Amino acid sequence: LSEVCEPGIDVIVIGERNDVSIFRDLVKAGVRDYLVKPLPVEYFLKDLEAICGITTTDSRSSAFYKSGRLIGVIGASGGSGVSTIVSNLGLILSEMYSKRTSIIDSDLQLGTIFQFFDMEPSSGFPQLFEAPDRIDQVLVDRYINFHNPNLGVLSAQLGLPNPPQIKTEAVDSLLDILTSHFHFTLVDLSRNFTNGLNFHIFEKANLVFIITDYSITGLKDTKRILEILKAYPMLKHGAIIVANKVGLYPE
């Protein structure tokens, strides 16, 4: 179910065996509740009220509230092919696996993701990072461009003299909206560590890909990035090194 349900779907299982081990296994697997027949209507209605937000119970606290996965992709060195890999990964997830996928190009000045999909950069996208109190689904829909029904892209191209003003609260709001509506959110991370955005993505990401080649510079900077990722518990086993341009350098 976790592979086919849209993000945010709650599942209630109705069975015939009153077995606490079954209940525990289902909850551990992400099911919201397990009810035994004959169905206790009052418990069933209570679950429905919580899911629909009728009660004060926050349905997001349920183990089964399945938000989409956040994946960061960063290059160990310049020109390692991050944007190419992110673009193709987005295409594969959206077309071959029919997963709703969003892509964020975090380099608001020199990003190239929009060029891969023959799109115009969104002039309003950078504004999302500046006004956390204004971000909502309607505003995100206004600035996101869709390459196909399952693949949305947020990419911009600010002037070089105009550095973006990024507020972490705005990043949180944007990611909350995207991960609640997309199975996968891919972030093309720049190699700029001065604005704090990379560290914020590392803190929230389910997985980080480090793209490198076999050059001495690439391998050294891969090691430096891995040292940074050790500080983020969620990424203890969630950092994957991808060797690109294999064969470019002689052994």
Describe the protein.
This protein has helices at residues 20-29, 41-52, 82-96, 113-116, 137-143, 168-181, 197-204, 216-229, and strands at 12-15, 33-36, 69-75, 101-105, 145-148, 151-154, 184-189, 207-212, 239-243. The protein has 251 residues and is an alpha/beta fold. It is built from 8 helices and 9 strands. The protein is globular and about 65 Å long. 33% of the residues lie in helices and 18% in strands. It has a 7-stranded mixed β-sheet, with helices on both faces.
Summarize the structure.
The protein has eight helices and nine strands.
Question: Descriptors for this entry?
Answer:
251 residues, 8 helices, seven-stranded mixed beta sheet
What's the topology here?
Layout (H helix, E strand, L loop, with lengths): L11 E4 L4 H10 L3 E4 L4 H12 L16 E7 L6 H15 L4 E5 L7 H4 L20 H7 L1 E4 L2 E4 L13 H14 L2 E6 L7 H8 L2 E6 L3 H14 L9 E5 L8
Parallel strand pairs: 1-2, 3-7, 3-8, 4-6, 4-7, 8-9
Antiparallel strand pairs: 5-6
